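Can you make up a protein sequence with its backbone structure tokens?

===
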Amino acid sequence: MCPLGGIRGSLSIDPHLPCYEHLPQVGPPPPAYLFPMHRLRGRLSERVSGQRRSALEDPMQEHPPGADRRLLRPRSLLSAAVVTVLAGATVALAVRPANAALGFEVESLNGRGNNVVHPTWGMAGTNYLRFAPANYADGRSQMVDGPNARMVSNRIFQDLGQNIFSEHRATQWLWTWGQYVDHHIGLREENGDRADIPFYNADPLERFTNTLGVIPFNRSKAAPGTGVTNVRQHVNTERSYLDGDGVYGPTNSRLEWLREGPVDNDLRNNGPKLMLPGGYLPTRDARGDVNSAPDAAVDGRLAATPNRARIAGDVRANENIALTATHTLYAREHNRIVSKLPNTLTDEEKFQIARRVVIAEEQYVTYHEFLPAMGVNLPAYTGYKPNVDGGMGHEFATSAYRMHSMIHGEFEVDADADRYTPDQIAALQKAGVVVTPEGDEVSLGVSLNIAFFNPDLLNLIGLGPMLQAIGGEPQYKNDEQFDNHLRSVLFQVPISGNPECLDDPSKPACFKGVLDLAALDIQRDRDHGMPRYNDMRRAFGLPPKTSFTAITGESSEAFPPGSGVDDPTSLDFTHLFDINGKEIPLGSEDAAMMTRGVRKTPLAARLKAVYGSPDNMDAFVGIVAERHLPGSELGELQNAIVTKQFLALRDADRFFYGNDPALEMIKQQYGIDFRQNLGDTIAANTDIPRADMNDNVFLVKDEQIPAGTTCSVTYHVDSTWDHAQQVSVKITNLSPTPINGWTLTWWFPTGQTITQLWNGAPPSQSGAMVTVRNASWNAVIPGNGGVLNQVGFNGTWDNATNADPPNILLNGRRCART
């Protein structure tokens, strides 16, 4: 048997898995998840129709092979035995007419019946959809060959510890919310064959030690009846609807455990609120009997004390404290809504009303803030489309939504110094938090390494300060550069006694094993039969790229004299630029907010040396290497895939907030409106004042961005009516030089259009992109604070979502937003 802390894991011992006793310090390898923003997904352990559920890598989700998981008692999501009748409506399986007391239909927990004509579309337990031909060596199941994934990672994904931030001031809420959404809609079955990635210590670009000799990797389990005589497919164990899964779970048994009241297989005698001891998610032992508690994925530090895992609707809630905090926030929000409902309602009616509102709130944040901040611009919503299959796309889940490079290596929590007692400060320091007193405030530096699988740390920091911190600083850029906490030592616990390990995990005395998320992402592409990069472009209606410079936007794909793909100095940075395009010195502090770096060798040259031709490139690698579209965090192919998926999630959902009259009824009867942004929800459920956060917490406050903008723009929706709106725009010239001729550019996030403009030349609009130019009489804006405040327009919106443009350019340069 493996000793506790061995690489196999700690919850159960599988005699068929290898025991790596020579690596006792490494701890269990990471699970198979991460946010394709990627996803920090975890190993799943519920059983679906007798099959073990596991994680389809979310943008943050990868599990190492052999990672242990505690299994729930066998139960089927599809078995009639788990159907529970609630106030006359069947919740788990069938579609029912509107409940007489509630006045609306109760949405199923597993997605069945969302589409009445095709009741299994988007349901848990159905296969991922393929939009491109599968790419297997034998045409059925065998993984294609390709360059060694770790060696690709060393040459393409290694960031050398240089932080590069979002070029559109996106905060860490972008990747955190992306992971939270991902865990609602996708989770693969694992436990397929071993396909470990060989590790070469002699690689001249290798900076880490791996005494195991391989990076552990298990293939995803093939869907029943596939991969032998036909193409291998994979089961999505989650339903692919944004329906509050992270709060309420996929089964009646999990939901019953989460709700206040007894656990006796009868939801009718449960209370309306969720169980939140002290305002935080319950631990596995909260009800006493841990053997009957729902499953929770554990790893890293939590593997030694699995009963400290928090239980939420999704098993992966403990993967990092940002994710745990988000689960906690919406559980609190459910209870807050319940508290606002009158006692004339039954407990079940209160529960279902609160659930309906929370689902809509999460959808609203996704489409009103999250997607616009990412630069994903959708056409106007025109209503529910029963002919659209809302199922999860393989190309989305496996390749495009793996935006792991966005994940920041640290959280910085700022709070009043008197918030924490001396004992709490000591406990934070013992946990590895860097505590820095700053007058009447205190700063807490939380390394990503100690944030993994460490839910007790959230209680120490506090929910409010943690949620505020996520929105307080920019995330890393969505590109090909991964933080080493993800690229090499994912979920591992460093050797004790060396505090510098959290700052520089490549130090030889820190870790003895390697778990590389970038390499896992590449290998998962091959495991799931993803087409090569250009074939995937063709499948999504895009022309193939004929050169690597056409992909990266660089001017050359040649190495400079004396350098090459195996040169250890080939990745060195030579120039850095901040968000305003100003060059800044190498070694600048993060406060300089560098958003672009130039390296000694072009990315295009390294890609060419590794792959030879764009036709040979792994789709995931090509996706993250693409130059971003204007105004977006995404490249062309990634944007096409992400847009297609979120359109399907919106248009195929019969319960989407734009198609749900129950929400207006709830607003009219109880004064509860789902249309609140994420900052509003944080302020309503914590002690953080709304004024202490940005209006849009997905964007960094302009006052926190380095000086250098020469303008500010106020974009204000003055009024809305049926499918129409009126907007005013004010431009302030912050430079000392007058502006003589101005052009404003923005991207409408949710399909809006301009129908009538005043005080400007006739506008042009191409898709989401809008261009507004000066009229002949207002071309000049004086310097030193000169204002032009008479520009405005009437336009359209879809009566569902009217998101503001997150970024506006004046004469091609970024303006501050006021």
About this structure: The radius of gyration is 26 Å. The CA atoms of residues 497 and 510 lie 9 Å apart. The first strand starts at residue 33 and ends at 34. Residues 1-97 have pLDDT under 50 and may be disordered.
